[in-house]
Every structure is written in C-alpha cells, then in structure tokens.
Specification:
InterPro entries: HTH-like_dom, Integrase_cat-core, RNaseH-like_sf, RNaseH_sf, Transpos_IS3, Transposase_IS3/IS150/IS904. By secondary structure, the protein is α/β, with parallel strands linked by helices. It is 45% helix and 13% strand. The protein contains twelve helices and seven strands. It has a five-stranded mixed β-sheet with strand order 3-2-1-4-5, sandwiched between helices. Strands 6-7 form a two-stranded antiparallel ribbon.
Length: 332
C-alpha cells in the first residue's frame, strides 16, 4: 500500500489519502504515521535478500535469451549455490518482471521428394539412446530477413541434445544447406559406424548426394511417416526452440546477421542452456560425464583382462608382510 500512496502523493497529501482509504475500508487501513514509519524503517533481512535475488534473476534471464521459466530459473539459481524453493523463485520472478517463453507453431519447410522413399523408420518415436553418436535427428527451418528468406539446417544428437552440426544458407539445395550441417556433424563425431540418421521425407534428405555421404560414413538412414511431425519430434523441438528463443525476438537484416546470432545461440544451447530432458543439465555436461564414465569403465575392463591373461605377473606384485611389520612388493 505504501507504493500506492507513493504514486498519488504528488496529487494529494498523505493525510488525505490515508483518511480516504480508512473511510472507504471498514476497520481502517493505514495511518499517515504508519506510512511514514514504513518509509523510514530499515528493510528486513528478507527484503534485502529479495532485492538481491531480483537482480540476480534478471541477470540470469537476460544471459539466457529471456526464455527461462520458473523451473529452469529455479535450477539455474541452485546451480549457483542459491538456497531457494521453486515457489519462492516464482515469487521473485514477479517483481523482477521476467517470465518464460512459449513456443509457437513450426513452419513447414519439408518438400517431399519426387521418387519413392524406401527408407525404414528405425526410431518409431523412441528418441532415447545409451550414448552419443548412436542416433542423430535432422531437419530444416527458416527465418525471414529484410533481404529474403534464410534457411537453417540442424543435426542433433539424441543422447545429449547437442547440436552436432548446423548450416545457414539463402538456398535449400542439398549441397548448400543440409549437407554442410551433416559434414560438420561427421567431422566432429568420434565415430559414426552404425549410427542412425533420422529425418523427414524432404527432397534434400533423399537426394543421392546426401545418401552417398551417409553411406561413406557408415551411417544408417531412417525416416518417419509422411506428414507426421511426431515421427521427428525431437528435431521439430530444436527448430521450435530456435525460432522462439532467437529468430522471433527481433527483425533481421540479412543472412550474415542471422548466421552470427545462430552461431552464438548454438554455442549457448550446447554449453549453457539447461535442458529439462537432461535433468536440467547442459549437453556438454552430459557428454563429458558419459565419456568420463566410459573411459573409467574401459580402463577397468582392460586391467581385468590383463590380470586374467597374466595372473602370475600380477600376483607376484602383491605386497607381502616383512619382519618389521611393513608391506614390501615382490620384484617380478
């Protein structure tokens, strides 16, 4: 109520405003003395903390393309060591004036190929894998600029949600767009043998050139049913996030401007953005954890195999007690 009085005190006196409020509200409201006491009273510890949190929430929101809602903001604060509940986060976001962004409908960029597409659906809407470089999803979207349309192609790893390849062009031709994204993904991968590449029935993805690059890399092709976006839902989700989090936030002058912004967004998506599907971790963190565990498991397996192959060598190095009570390793 002090904020209400602050807003109107330049039009009437504090005494008049308080008297009017007390008259219109049964049981009284606020006296002029109470108002002045409230204005001079030192802020409480909660008020001080709330002000600090409001500032921090605004910074986090701005650094993450203004897209974080309550849940992601809550996890972002906790990752910074802030002890806070989800409902308290919701309360703080209100005075901070920030909120999450909802995704709009995705544009149609699929141009079906003229020939018969015989590729099977090896995914069946099951977008889960046990590790990186086992299943990639690919799709194309677009952005409108002052000089015409710009098309973007993304290749995303299903396990980590990392965008492993992307390209931007003023043309949707295979060589100019999706093939560039695919080549980038293949170049960055540790291995592609047996990997599944899932896409829609777009003419760019059924072209002979694209097919040959997949074959040369040992990648298996897969596609969903015609006209059903759910069969490539993860790729559609990436496109939707791209449009919602960056493209629809401003007007674009040309391809170069969009390309620079896309580069920054992809880097943020891979290294900083918290993904609900990853238990509010980043793709980079998920992949790092996987490869560390994979390396540890491989090291342990190699040691066990070596012990089984040379039992005498390892048993000879086991420590044995000595007369002075200390352990001493036998020399082999």
């Amino acid at each position: 109520m002090t904020a209400f009085i602050d807003e109107y005190r330049d039009r009437s006196t504090v005494e008049f405003i308080c008297a009017t409020l007390n008259k219109e509200r049964e049981g009284g409201f606020l006296s002029s003395r109470g108002y002045r006491d409230a204005k001079t009273r030192a802020p409480s510890a909660r008020q001080v903390r709330d002000r600090e949190l409001v500032k921090l929430v605004r910074e986090i929101h701005a650094e993450n393309y203004g897209v974080y809602g309550v849940r992601k903001m809550w996890h972002a604060l906790r990752r910074l060591g802030v002890i806070i509940g989800r409902e308290q986060t919701r309360r703080i976001m209100a005075p901070a004036g920030v909120a999450g962004k909802r995704k709009g409908k995705n544009p149609v960029t699929t141009r079906k190929g003229k020939g018969v597409d015989t590729r099977p659906d090896l995914v069946q809407r099951d977008f889960t894998t046990k590790g990186p470089n086992q299943l990639w999803v690919a799709d194309i979207t677009y952005a409108r600029t002052a000089k015409g349309f710009v098309y973007a192609a993304f290749v995303t790893d299903v396990f980590s949600r990392r965008i492993v390849g992307w390209a931007l062009s003023g043309s949707m031709k295979t060589e100019a767009l999706p093939l560039q994204a695919l080549n980038q993904a293949i170049w960055n991968a540790k291995s592609t043998a047996g990997l599944i590449h899932h896409s829609d029935h777009g003419s760019q993805y059924v072209s002979l050139t694209y097919h040959q690059h997949l074959v040369d890399a040992g990648i298996v092709e897969s596609t969903g049913s015609v006209g059903d976006s759910y069969d490539n839902a993860l790729a559609e989700n990436v496109n939707g996030s791209y449009k919602n989090e960056i493209i629809h936030t401003r007007r674009w002058a040309d391809v170069l401007e969009v390309e620079i912004a896309t580069f920054e967004w992809v880097n943020w998506w891979n290294t900083k953005r918290l993904h609900q599907a990853l238990d509010y971790r980043t793709p980079a963190e998920v992949e790092t954890d996987y490869w560390q565990q994979h390396q540890l498991s491989a090291t342990t397996t190699n040691r066990v195999n070596a012990q089984e192959a040379n039992p005498d060598h390892f048993s000879a190095r086991q420590p044995r007690p000595t007369a002075d009570g200390h352990d001493r390793c036998r020399s082999s």
